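Mods, move this if it's the wrong board.
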Amino acid sequence: MDKFSTSFKGYNKNEVNDFVSLCIKRVEGMLNDLKAKDLEIENIKNELAKYKDMEEALNRAILLAEDSSSQMRKMAKDESERIINEAKRNASRIVNEALLDAEKTQMENAQLKRNIITFKRRIKSVLENQLEMVDDIDHLDI
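Not the wrong board. Structure tokens:
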């Protein structure tokens, strides 16, 4: 935590103002980071929806190929099982990665919120100390 130099009238206003400006910039940075993480989560969700749509399209294409002929049906069935398994593996992997990313983002979000709370408490403590010092000026014998 920064220390401020004092003068007859209390802390140096420029130092305090600089510190408050720095604090504001940090909080704004944290808020921008949260917004970016929220956007990243939304993009990942949209990407996941695209993969699910692709899986459904593949399933429809396989069903049409099975109706063509018994020979084609057998080949299409074998191919569809391979594609479906691969799609499921990919979908599971994508879902797992998205869930891990979302969980990581949520944890980072929670950490940022805790940091903001701690930061607020520190600022409040500094301001309360300042107010106590102002109140103590009245008790000085000058």
